[in-house]
Amino acid sequence: MRRGPRPLLLHLTLAMLKSSVSVASSGTSNPAWENSSAAAIRAALGPASAQAAFPQAVLHEALRQDAALIAGIAAYRRHPWQRTLEDPPAIWREGSSRLLDYGGTGPVVLVVPSLVNRAHVLDLMEGHSMLRWLAATGVHPLLLDWGWPEEAERRFTLTDYTAGRLERALAAVGEPVVLAGYCMGGLLAVAAAQRRPELVRGLGLLATPWDFHAPDPARARQAADCLPLLEPALALFGALPVDALQVLFALLDPWGVAAKYRAFGRLDPNGARAALFVAMEDWLNDGVPLAEPVARECLRDWYGANTPMRGDWRVAGMPVDPTAITCPAFVAIPGRDRIVPPESAEPLARLIPNAVRHTPAAGHVGMVAGMAAERALWRPLLDWVLGLPSGRPKRRRA
């Protein structure tokens, strides 16, 4: 049974608060302070003599939007689509992590996803699998599936994941690879490419944040300020639970979930767009807990102190410095990304020497799995990989 959107109570409460405040303030609101929805209602009412009907019109609109939200959530929960793709064979395992081999011929591309979501966003559904498409078009993709953090992984730091598990997965391949990191996975890929240049012949960074205070330092620090409130959960579970992570993501766009579910309710439930929406939401709602030490590093250091951008983030004692990367790099910065704003990802394209900068008109998830993902990312990434020089990468000078 689908449980999304998670946490459901939060999203319903936000919708209720928005409606309640809108209705309560409609009789006294100043038109100069109103949002676009209120302005549209006033415009639809026409002459000033009809403005007395504004509070009633706001009430009707609030009830309509709330009903549409409930209808959209119900339509999502009863939709018949289920993911049927089977995982390919694993060529390496350690703890709960696996290196999945998607076959194909050509350059080996090892893809590193985020630690807080399931890896299969890159293998989402039929027709929307970046890895299967790459395998069919001249590339040999591997996917590092981090897995569910068990007892050992819940004690991991970012150093354990990067200098430990990721670097051992790279070594297990047996030849230099193109290392491609998605979102949080991109930060780990930057560190690994700098530390082990003999294992990495090219670096792809897909919607990877670097300046965590861009474009809004106050919002980033707000996430860091949540850490004391999360202490009981971290102590109880040894990890940051999925619903707590979803709350933090909701802070980035409090009204976005309600808007997209209202829009989903208007789709043809038998259409391709509806099925893709359900696939993406199933993935989003099936998250992975974040190990306690990693959660602290991310919130306190990345979001609070902005250590990557300041040059203070270290892995196994080594400062992570994009300017020290010697291999070719491809930096994809989706222009409509709300999770990783373009201003946050942009510095990597400037700091890495001679990086190729790619800016598709897409969102964070849409770039890798959306309706236009082949044009937005898959083909440009393929062309870049196939255009890389052959041979072993240069060794970094001491």
Provide an overview of this structure.
The termini are far apart. α7 (217-225) packs antiparallel against α12 (292-304). This protein has 16 helices and twelve strands. The longest helix has 25 residues, at 54-78. The chain is of the alpha/beta class and 398 residues long. The chain has helices at residues 8-25, 36-45, 54-78, 130-135, 158-173, 184-195, 217-225, 227-237, 242-252, 256-264, 272-285, 292-304, 307-310, 342-351, 366-369, 373-386; strands at 90-94, 97-101, 108-112, 140-145, 177-182, 200-206, 239-240, 290-291, 314-315, 318-319, 329-332, 356-358. It has an eight-stranded mixed beta sheet, sandwiched between helices. Strands 7-8 form a two-stranded antiparallel sheet.
Give the overall shape, derived from the CA principal axes.
globular
**CATH architecture assignment name of the largest domain:** 3-Layer(aba) Sandwich
- Assign a percent range to the helix content: 40-55%
- Main sheet record: 8 strands, mixed
| Record field, number of beta strands | 12
Order of adjacent strands in the largest pleated sheet: 1-2-4-3-5-6-11-12
Strand proportion = 5-15%
Brief summary:
By secondary structure, this protein is of the alpha/beta class. The chain contains 16 helices and twelve strands. Helix content is 47%, strand content 12%.
What's the structural blueprint in terms of helices and strands?
Elements: H1 8-25, H2 36-45, H3 54-78, E1 90-94, E2 97-101, E3 108-112, H4 130-135, E4 140-145, H5 158-173, E5 177-182, H6 184-195, E6 200-206, H7 217-225, H8 227-237, E7 239-240, H9 242-252, H10 256-264, H11 272-285, E8 290-291, H12 292-304, H13 307-310, E9 314-315, E10 318-319, E11 329-332, H14 342-351, E12 356-358, H15 366-369, H16 373-386
Parallel strand pairs: 3-4, 3-5, 5-6, 6-11, 11-12
Antiparallel strand pairs: 1-2, 2-4, 7-8, 9-10
Helix pairs in contact: 1-3, 3-10, 5-6, 7-12, 8-12
